[in-house]
Every structure is written in C-alpha cells, then in structure tokens.
C-alpha cells in the first residue's frame, strides 16, 4: 500500500509538501499540486485515518459537502437526501466550509455528495474510487467513480426567455452570481442561447454580477440604475434572492415592477410567492434532486452499475413580477 513518502518520492517533492497538498493547503503552487495529485492517483494512494485508528472498514455514514448554508434553498435538498439515507440504514454528516474537509480527505465516510465549488476537480478526481464513490451536483467530471446529478438549468432558462418574449420583451438583462458557480454559469449560458434562438441579442452592459444574496442583488441593481438611463424592460436572475433584492432597488428608485422593469428568478424558494410583487420563477424540485443524488450514491456503494435515470422536474411559474407589464417606448 502506497505511503505519503512514496507519493513524495514519485512527485519529486518533500513529504511535508505532499502532506500540505493532501490537506488542501493554499500555500502550494498549482504546478506542484498537480504533480502530487497525479503521483497519488498513479500509486493508488488514499489518505485516511487508519493510522490513527479512527476509521473502520465501513462507517455506514455518507457525507454531504456544501459551500455554505446561506439562503433558504437547502432545507428541501437536505430532506430529500436524509430520507434516502435513513431508508438505507445509514447516517449522514453535513459539512459546510470554503476549506477542504478532513472527513473527505481522510475518507471517514463511505461516500459523499458534493455541492461545494471550493473543492477542486483535481482533488475529487484523485479521491474517487470503487471503494469511495462520489456524486457531484455542481460540476461535470469524467470519472467512472464519480456520478453527476445536475439540474436542467438550460431548460429552465428556455422557459423563462420564452415567457418574457411572449410578454413582449425584446431587451432582457441578466443578474448573475459568482463565476465559480456551475449552476449560475449554466443558467447564464442557457439564457444567452435561448435569446439567440429567439433572434435576440444580449448587451454585455446588461449583465450584472452579485453573489446570490438578496442584499447583493439590491446593491448591484442600485448601482446599475444610478449610472444607466437606458435599461432593459426585463431582467432574469440566476436565483430568487438576487431578483428580490433587485426589485427592492427598482422600487426604491420610485419605479414599478413589472410596469417599468419585469423580473424573473430561479429556484422558487418559499418566499417567492409571498414577495411583493410575487416573483415569477423556475420551480426546482429540490427534495427530488436530493433523493436522486442519494439514490445514485447508494447504487454506486452497492456496485449496481445500471442506475435508472430520472429527470429532475422543473417548471416555470409566472407571477406578478413579470406579467402584464407596460412596455416602454
């Protein structure tokens, strides 16, 4: 069985450097990190806690690794995963951080579901194995021991754009989140593709960047309206919270929604229907998404190679924020 020293020797670096890489230190250069991870993968090295007598051969625990709990999106997702975990006689640990997780690195769980863009693709690729399967919800990785359960983001954006065009909008802006977000960037890409299909262009100045929170949506829209006299008749947001913040910014300007600017969101969080005006949005079946992710992981743990594919249900919900707007000249 390969040791940390073996990996260090093959990579041509010190044991200390190898240890830093395996523990996710940001002090190591990308080139060195890639060499160490490649050597670890080639040798079959798996960092674990066996030397400390902290891990049994099987824990009957799965891990769910998140980038954070901010926002109301995660409750239903967690519920869907937890229901399936309990059904299979397992337990679940949930870790939320922007750092690399010891439970993942040392494999104190039997498998893991990943929704954390802070964790590098290279690290997941090096850790995944037949004995340690992974399910990712936020990236597309080609590895026989990693399965993807991704939202149909582009389909959702097609439904949004179709609705807005049918409402008479020709110039539509977009409120995006972090460029590191797989779902957020997939939605932006789908939005642009849907505009092109409709024969509409997209002006780069109509792309706003926030961080998926309501306050960031408010601030970026306020800044945009303060400097732009000419603006789109509608904005699509990569999530509901940014849309709600942007609507508040428009209202603070003395403008009306949807008469002056229409808005749509994505996710259909509980507050969306009670917001004023109620928010048009794409409803994501979050509990179903969690259930499918957990079922996929248990198929892999049980070495069932044929996993039944099930599409995650999404549906555009038109509400007051985008209906019957009065078009500006």
What does this structure look like?
It is a single chain. The radius of gyration is 23 Å and the shape is elongated. Helices cover 39% and strands 14% of the residues. α10 (240-252) links the parallel β8 (234-237) and β9. The strands form 3 sheets. The chain has a 5-stranded parallel β-sheet with strand order 2-1-3-4-5, with helices on one face. The protein has a 4-stranded parallel β-sheet with strand order 7-6-8-9, with helices on both faces. With 329 residues, it is an alpha/beta fold.
What structural keywords apply?
329 residues, alpha/beta, five-stranded parallel sheet, four-stranded parallel sheet, disordered C terminus
* Helical coverage, percent range: 25-40%
User: Termini separation (Å)?
Assistant: 72 Å
Main beta-sheet strand count, sense and barrel state: 5 strands, parallel
Q: Using only CA atoms, what is the Rg?
A: 23 Å
Summarize the structure.
With 329 residues, the protein is of the alpha/beta class.
How is the secondary structure organized here?
Layout: H1 4-11, H2 15-22, H3 30-43, E1 61-66, H4 74-87, E2 91-96, H5 102-105, E3 111-115, H6 121-127, E4 134-136, E5 146-148, H7 153-166, E6 172-176, H8 182-197, E7 207-209, H9 214-227, E8 234-237, H10 240-252, E9 262-264, E10 281-284, H11 286-301, E11 314-317
């Amino acid at each position: 069985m390969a040791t940390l020293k073996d990996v260090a020797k093959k990579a041509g670096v010190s044991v200390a450097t190898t240890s830093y890489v395996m523990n996710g230190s940001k002090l190591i250069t990308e080139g060195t990190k890639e060499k160490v991870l490649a050597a670890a993968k080639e040798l079959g090295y798996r960092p674990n806690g066996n030397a400390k007598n902290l891990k049994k051969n099987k824990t009957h625990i799965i891990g769910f690794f998140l980038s954070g709990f901010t926002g109301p999106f995660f409750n239903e997702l967690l519920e869907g995963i937890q229901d399936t975990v309990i059904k299979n006689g397992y337990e679940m640990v949930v870790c939320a951080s922007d750092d690399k997780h010891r439970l993942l690195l040392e494999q104190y769980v039997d498998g893991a579901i990943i929704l954390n863009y802070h964790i590098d693709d290279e690290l997941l690729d090096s850790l995944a194995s037949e004995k340690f399967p992974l399910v990712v919800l936020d990236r597309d990785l080609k590895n026989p021991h990693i399965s993807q359960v991704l939202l149909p983001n582009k389909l959702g954006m097609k439904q949004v754009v179709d609705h807005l065009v049918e409402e008479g909008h020709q110039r539509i802006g977009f409120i995006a989140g972090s460029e590191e977000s797989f779902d957020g960037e997939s939605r932006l890409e789908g939005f642009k593709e849907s505009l092109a299909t409709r024969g509409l262009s997209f002006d780069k100045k109509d792309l706003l960047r926030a961080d998926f929170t309501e306050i960031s949506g408010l601030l970026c829209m306020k800044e945009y309206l303060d400097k732009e006299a000419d603006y789109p008749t509608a904005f699509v947001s990569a999530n509901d919270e940014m849309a709600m913040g942007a609507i508040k910014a428009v209202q603070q300007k003395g403008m009306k929604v949807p008469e002056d600017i229409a808005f749509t969101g994505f996710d259909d969080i509980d507050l969306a229907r009670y917001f004023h005006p109620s928010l048009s949005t794409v409803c994501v079946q979050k509990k179903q998404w969690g259930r499918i992710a957990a079922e996929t992981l248990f198929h892999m743990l049980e070495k069932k190679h044929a996993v039944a594919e099930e599409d995650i249900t999404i549906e555009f919900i038109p509400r007051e924020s985008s209906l019957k707007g009065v078009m500006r000249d």
